[in-house]
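Re: weekly structure request thread

Next one in the queue (771 aa):
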Amino acid sequence: MTSPWNDRLAQVWAGSHKPRAKVLADEPQSQAGTGVIIGDDGVLTARHVIAGALNGGTILARMVKQGATTSSWATMKVISHDLDWDLALLQVDDPKSDNQWQKPNSPSPQVVMLDGDAEHNCEVLGFPETAIQPSESGLPSEDIYQSEQALGTLLLTNQAKPAQTNKKTLPKRTFLLDVDRSHPKTSKGWQEMSGSGVILSAGRLVGVVASVDQERDTHRLFVTPLADAISDSPGLAEGFTKLLGHPIPVEIEAAPLIEELLQGVCLGASGLPITLGEAELEAFGVKRANIIGEPAYLDYTKRDQDGELTKALDEAISSHRMLLIVGSSASGKSRSMAELAKAKLANYHLLCPKATLFSQLLELPLDSIKPAVVWLEDVENYVGLNFKGTISELLSEGLVVIGTIRQNQLEMHKPFGDAKMHKTLVLQKEWSNSWSKKERSELQNHVKNKALRQWVKKNNSPSVWCAAGTELADKLRIAKSNDDKPYRYQLVRTVLDWYRTGNARPIAIATATSLLTESIALSLAPDEQEVSDALTWATEPVVGKGRMSSQSLLSKVDDTYLKVHNYLQDEDAKSITAEVPDAIWRATLDAVGSDDERFTIGLFACNQSNSKWAESAWRPLSDGGNSRAMLTMGMLCSEQGRHKDAIAIYDEVIARFGDDPTPETHEVAVGALFSKGAALGQYGQHEAAAEVYDEVIARFGDDPTPETHEVAVGALSSKGATLGELGRFRDAVPIFNAVVNRFGDDRTPEIRELVVKALLAKGIALEELIA
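Done, posted below.
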């Protein structure tokens, strides 16, 4: 944020005499101070600076802009003042005298509310050890005075200070600014610093200097906390409203970080996330219906699954798991979950993270935000290197985590035991795309639109109609066979393929158009007119049937990027068999902005059996020492039959991270040791594999961490299988018995699956012994 001192520093002068009147010896002395320019023509200062002029005196102010000519003095009027807080708001008295008042170009300062004990690197700027000299008229001269900056630490716990200092009554509450340097030697030297604004290092306004603490050798200033004053004083609050045309927003200290990490739809005026009860449905990813004669969001129709959804939410919260709603596009899953969450968790703050910054969510001051719900619409956009670790920590912090994902996207995230598939971390709830007869009948009571009512009577989903799903699919199907306009279909195909790589970022229009010739069917680059035609066609909305639809095949983001309709993605995933062109893989890797994104693209490539681009995505991360990327590279090598390379990678992971106590890294190291055993078995070294499984059991058999415990049980079961490969069935049977006896009562889904496999393997081993 730009410092307010660039064009928000004001010099203030007040005198009890009338303009141009003869100055008499017994008249009160004039007083000068500093101020902060508010809005276009207002000034905030300390009340005691202008107190002598409140009854018929003259008050003047001027902007002091560093490195520029200081403007002339302008006559000011008082629009609000408060004795208890020692604050005053001034405004240019004669709006026509524009030549006397220079309007600032920067935004009005942002007021911040602090909590805690201390704030370091605070700044105050004013005119210490300066006495404004009067002109012959008695008014201040036009002389230019040098401002001076002071830096220091703001102490926030100053609640019990003496009521008087330097013959001035202190405001209701004050902070203390402990100045580090550049301070005058006497309290008189601070006089014209009264009214100076105190700002944080990021440029936000904390308070106004009231006085100097004479007990501290003049290196401490009393500061009026502005947020407290605005909250306590209706007059001051009204004065700011007059100056700005709206109530002055007061942000919490963490507002910039919150704004950086969260989407704007969930932010309140103070910078604190809004509550679920306050949030609009848009914040939850619910699309507007846009139907003529109907509200933007249709009245909610109760679904048959609502009761099951309520039970699932209760279970997820009580078991400290993420609730993941799985269903197709236009199934109504987001609307139903949003309605439930708004009703059940209305007082919880809503956190909608920006996808690419999800792993940084733990940097937020969660204790100040809780209780809170983390809402992940389209969870696939949040996958990354530390997705699992971030979810685990958010849950351990007591936050509720709710996500939605389309079924086809969930299937694409299955490799390597992805966190979204892990039942100890995630509770999945399937959501039906079809509407029952009861639901369709209920809907008739909520909508009047004839076209929609007719659609629903034919046993169709109203969500699909609202999303114009059928029309969109038909539009693309027809375009595919349009030989006269081949670039229309190819543009949409390019964007669809872009998202098939796992890149959650919209594709740049320039990138999409440059990739149009990558299709085997197209050999000539399109001209400018053909590109324009394709863009217009793909982004124009499907309309008609009473639908004021904004639904289109593609939509623009900031006029620079393109994203594809979710419904179209789902339909495409059901039938597409062609591989994503190499040029699109290359382009999407060139566009990644973080290691998380690069890792995700590797996952998608691997899931599509495209080891070339999986390795291209992961190799830089693996070579750079990223533990999870190294583990997945080892798994990729094993899948390709390169067991020797895989074992070498696992050995490096174990050597580098085997003793790392960090939960996420520890889990990777355990996985690498287990995977080494599997790779040795696949390489034909069964004796060595059995030894590795013994090491896993010995080192981690008693580890209570669910993920590590699962690996240890898997190692015990795998040892039995390895002994079977060696023909040592008699030795294998006791191993399988141990798995069943020790873990047969474990209700964890993953452990139960291993127990069942051990029972089956035991049966096979016994058959071999009998034979």
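The chain is about 40% helix and 15% strand. The CA atoms of residues 652 and 748 lie 31 Å apart.
Next request, please.
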